[in-house]
Amino acid sequence: MKPKKSLGLHVKRLLSGVAQHGASHLTEVETDLVQIGLLLEVAIEKLSSNFIAIHAAVSVQQDVIDVLLSGALPSQQQLALLASTEHEIDKNVNAAVTSMQFQDMTSQLLDRNIKRVTGLREFLTTLGTYGVRMSPESEDQEIIAVLTDMRMALAVQSVQLRGALRKAVSQQHLESGDIELF
């Protein structure tokens, strides 16, 4: 193989590898960010409905308290509503706490994305480090050797980064059971 064709092939392999690994990691970041958005949307919707239900139950209790403070006796209907509000408040507080635990899962996703972005930054730093070893005066064989070393180092870094990042995001010990997403 002629040196120029060999050099071109090595540059092509390097750039293809960088593009492939970079695109793969950025696709994972994008997927995680979409998942974070969905988790937050669901959690906020559930929190809102639980807090509205808690407010409604507390309002029922306040109505009975107001009747008692006025010196009157609450009606049987008010007493029945009062008895059911304790259960409603407990149920909705537990549901709100469960919804807030989605924060743990979003935190795991954000942490994973920070690690992935840090890995990509290290990936680009490796490119720069190896790039410094080349100069315009470098012989083709020297450039080929540096490009080969660079490609191998980047492939190793990409595999290590992929291995360091858990795929599943989970929340354990919720009252409603274990949850594993994605």
Report on this model:
This protein is mainly alpha-helical. The protein contains four helices and two strands, in the order ααααββ. It has helices spanning 3-69, 76-100, 102-132, 140-164; strands at 169-174, 177-181. The chain has a two-stranded antiparallel ribbon with strand order 1-2. Helix 1 (3-69) packs antiparallel against helix 3, helix 1 (3-69) runs parallel beside helix 4 (140-164) and helix 3 packs antiparallel against helix 4. The two termini are 47 Å apart.
Fold blueprint:
Blueprint: H1 3-69, H2 76-100, H3 102-132, H4 140-164, E1 169-174, E2 177-181
Helix pairs in contact: 1-2, 1-3, 1-4, 3-4
Features:
single chain; 182 residues; mainly alpha; two-stranded antiparallel ribbon; 4 helices; 2 strands
Quick synopsis:
The chain has four helices and two strands.
Query: What string gives the helices and strands in order?
Result: HHHHEE
Largest sheet: 2 strands, antiparallel
Question: Number of helical runs?
Answer: 4
What is the general shape?
rod-shaped
- As a percent range, the share of strand residues is 5-15%
